[in-house]
UniProtKB/TrEMBL annotation, chain A:
Superkingdom of the source species: Bacteria
Keywords from the named record: Membrane, Transmembrane, Transmembrane helix
Cross-referenced Pfam families: DUF5687
Claim: Transmembrane helix is one of the keywords in the record: yes
Segments passing through the bilayer: 27-51, 66-88, 109-130, 136-154, 166-186, 198-219, 274-294, 300-322, 343-366, 372-395, 416-435, 447-463
InterPro entries membership: DUF5687
Originating organism: Flavobacterium panici
Protein name, per record: Uncharacterized protein
Record carries keyword Membrane: yes
UniProtKB/TrEMBL annotation, chain B:
PANTHER family: ABC TRANSPORTER ATP-BINDING PROTEIN ALBC-RELATED
An example molecular function term from Gene Ontology annotations: ATP hydrolysis activity
Domain of life where this protein originates: Bacteria
Record-linked SUPFAM superfamilies: P-loop containing nucleoside triphosphate hydrolases (SSF52540)
Keywords: ATP-binding, Nucleotide-binding, Transport
ATP-binding recorded as keyword: yes
Domain spans labelled ABC transporter: 2-230
Matches recorded under Pfam families: ABC_tran
Residues making up the signal peptide according to the UniProt record: none
Name of the protein: ABC transporter ATP-binding protein
Length: 489, 231
């Protein structure tokens, strides 16, 4: 019976839309995977020595922050890790016994990316610990405990996934605990560190998380089995709809109509909501560069790079997928009395407004000095003047339908890679860096900034021309886009 | 109103639609029948410029649909659920289409009030997004949305499928009403011969992309068609 399941999964895997694409994309994907894996492994190896250099006992420090690590992991899972409910439906009426279906579905989540990604940190870290003379058996037990915690989170996510907005509670918990610790009001790690440390020091303590995990598995099993009905666990939750008029946008005419629609699009769909979340992450990405924590990042050119990401987070994560956001009803759009220009223009305004808001929010970087904030503002000007056009142009080549109800794939939808869109990302980043670099070459930071801002202003001046070009491109690609959006993944 | 010239559509050398000449005069209610794969949806997609013809062209009101976009302002269409925006409520959807067709809120409200019976109380003020409505109710929304802005050409692909018996008879009433208006050309496709015969003045049967019958509806039409499709 298991053989049949594995057969199904294998077919699902090799026939998924992302798998059948061309070789170039696979290679790029492969490189990205390797790149991120290396970063994680680097963190695992480096963590020990960096902490040591900071005159902290590495192992104790890691144990100290594990509580936050696991809480954050849970939040990310609640937000992004979806449970493969729909795949279960067709199996219900086939001659499979229910326990088999449940075991299989639970087993499938075990192999999820959200689980094995942690191994990339823990394994190298443990190897370093072993090399540095920590007791090997104790490390293995400690790792078993970590593994259990990761899977406890995995199954908690399954049980809790039906509760709406629960991640807010956990996120709040992290913020409160973190804040209390920072201001020395209450330090939760005083209580948790001995426990996590004990997993290494005290023989047999690791059995506690292992047993909890076993209990949780049994509980999830019973929970899912009991709910294996179309109107229970397998029901797709319906939101209570609220009609919104947003009538203040009416004054902008057709543009307002589209903006209204886009705002609803972002608010009401899982997949598009994650772009907001990602934009906020990008907003804080700058800390890595500006705080001077990482030496190689603390260079003027890198600051500009950070500025582009800080102000352009939304531009990159949302703009990149225009017009795929409307893929589900693209045929409708194509039969309505809409000028293409109005449609694209509305998306452009949305991106511009979001960029401006990000830039204003980013004003907390003034803490690191006015020069830093000026860099961000200049990057924002470039984003508005040049990059906003480029992402929209790239959109004409993005022909992957987006499943709005699915939250997954927010980390650069791997399905949406294609060569022409990839090539368009180069000027988005390299061109401003080059311009800025020129200024620095003449030993004048402000000249560099002026060059970048100038490019942005130029892009803005030629907006109408560029839009005509984009419009033409969209028209040429119309039929193949419609066709591509019809292929549901 | 609609003129088809030497139209054909081929996919990888297989011809899926081949219509030499077809003219649909203004005000006609035109029914397209045929089995699966006969080319009904292909024809409508060509008419709406959603796919490109391999040869020939279609003109609507003397506008060639694949070169100019001006036909959009007088054409209302509903092919399938991909014409709906899932995350909107029905009301928002109607207002959205209304905005695009330059209708104000009062126009839309009047239209919705007129078709309240058709909605059967299951559409408006229901606190549901379109994606959460049943297939039949989604269809109701799509069909009424095509009427926004008094289009001169109304295209409905399989409007009777998925509807309950009561709604089917109400829909027939709506289509007949449209057909009575001499300015409105209605194009309907269906598998259901009886429904089509009831609402259309003229019926064209397609088989493997070719026109095999073209008849003005009369008493004997249903029998003739049933005989033709019975194998």
């Amino acid at each position: 019976m298991i053989k049949n399941f594995i057969y199904l999964e294998w077919k699902a895997f090799i026939r998924s839309a992302s798998f059948g694409k061309n070789l170039a994309m696979k290679i790029i994907l492969g490189f990205l995977m390797i790149y991120f894996s290396l970063i994680f492994i680097g963190m695992g190896v480096g963590a020990f020595y960096i902490l040591k250099e900071m005159h902290l006992e590495p192992f104790v420090t890691v144990n100290r922050f594990l509580i936050y690590y696991f809480l954050l992991d849970l939040v990310i899972r609640l937000l992004l890790q979806s449970i493969p409910v729909l795949n279960i439906k067709p199996l219900l009426v086939l001659p499979f016994k229910k326990p088999v279906i449940v075991h299989f579905s639970l087993g499938k989540t075990v192999l999820s990316f959200f689980n094995w990604v942690h191994a990339l940190f823990f394994v190298p870290f443990s190897v370093v610990l072993a090399i540095e003379g920590y007791d090997i058996t104790a490390i293995i037990f400690w790792n078993l405990a970590m593994l259990s915690f990761i899977y406890i989170n995995n199954f908690l996510n399954i049980i809790l996934s039906n509760i709406d907005k629960l991640f807010v509670v956990f996120l709040g918990l992290i913020l409160v605990l973190g804040g209390a610790q920072y201001y020395k009001l209450f330090d939760v790690t005083i209580f948790t560190t001995p426990f996590f440390q004990g997993l290494y020091n005290i023989k047999g303590l690791f059995l506690i998380p292992v047993l909890v995990l076993a209990g949780l598995y049994i509980f999830s099993f019973k929970f899912l089995k009991k709910n294996l009905y179309l109107d229970a666990g397998l029901s797709v939750k319906e939101d209570v709809a609220q009609t919104e008029n947003l009538s203040w946008l009416n004054q902008f005419g057709t543009l307002g109509t589209f903006l209204k629609n886009d705002i609803k699009l972002i608010k009401r769909n899982k997949r598009s909501k994650t772009t907001i979340f990602m934009s906020i992450l990008f907003l804080f990405y700058g800390f890595l560069f500006f705080s001077g924590g990482i030496e190689t990042y603390d260079k003027p050119v890198m600051h500009l790079l950070a500025g582009i990401f800080v102000s352009g987070g939304f531009l990159f994560v949302f703009g990149q997928f225009v017009p795929s956001w409307d893929s589900a009803y693209y045929q409708l759009m194509m039969t309505q009395n809409i000028p293409y220009r109005g449609y694209i223009m509305a998306k452009w305004w949305l991106i511009v407004i979001a960029t401006i808001i990000s830039t204003i929010l980013a004003s907390f970087y003034i803490y690191f000095g006015w020069q830093i904030y000026l860099t961000i503002v200049v990057a924002a000007i470039y984003n508005i003047g040049v990059n906003s056009h480029l992402v929209l142009l790239g959109g004409a080549f993005t022909k992957t339908p987006i499943d709005l109800s699915n939250a997954g794939g927010a980390f650069g939808d791997k399905k949406a890679f294609n060569v022409s869109a990839m090539l368009l990302t180069l000027p988005k980043i390299l061109l401003p860096l080059g311009l800025y670099g020129t200024g620095i070459y003449f030993d004048n930071k402000n000249l560099g900034l002026a060059l970048v801002a100038g490019a942005g202003v130029l892009g803005f001046i030629f907006k109408e021309k560029v839009f005509s070009l984009i419009e033409k491109r969209y028209k040429i690609e119309k039929y193949s886009t419609i066709n591509a959006y019809k292929q549901k993944s | 109103m609609i003129q088809v010239n030497q139209l054909s559509k081929k996919y990888n050398g297989t011809t899926v639609l081949n219509i030499n000449n077809l003219e649909i005069p203004k005000g006609q209610s035109f029914g397209l029948v045929g089995n699966n794969g006969a080319g009904k949806t292909t024809f409508f997609s060509l008419l709406l410029d959603l796919i490109q013809p391999s040869t020939g062209n279609i003109t609507s009101n003397d506008i060639q649909v694949n070169t100019s976009e001006n036909w959009k302002s007088f054409t209302g269409s509903f092919l399938d659920e991909s014409f709906l925006i899932g995350y909107l409520t029905p009301e928002e959807y109607f207002y959205f289409i209304g905005d695009l067709r330059h209708q104000n809120k009062a126009d839309i409200d009047a239209l919705l009030a007129k078709h309240e019976e058709f909605f059967n109380g299951e559409i408006l003020n229901n606190k549901k997004y379109l994606r959460d409505l049943s297939k039949g109710n989604q269809k109701k929304v799509g069909i009424i949305a095509t009427l926004i802005g008094n289009p001169e050409v109304v295209i409905l692909d399989e409007p009777f499928a998925n509807l309950d018996p009561t709604t089917v008879s109400r829909l027939k009433k709506i289509i007949k009403e449209l057909a009575e208006n001499p300015n409105v050309t209605v194009l309907v496709s269906s598998h259901d011969l009886q429904h089509t015969v009831e609402v259309c003045d003229r019926i064209v049967a397609l088989n493997k992309g070719e026109i095999v019958k073209d008849i003005q509806t009369s008493e004997e039409t249903l029998q003739e068609l049933e005989l033709f499709f019975a194998v």
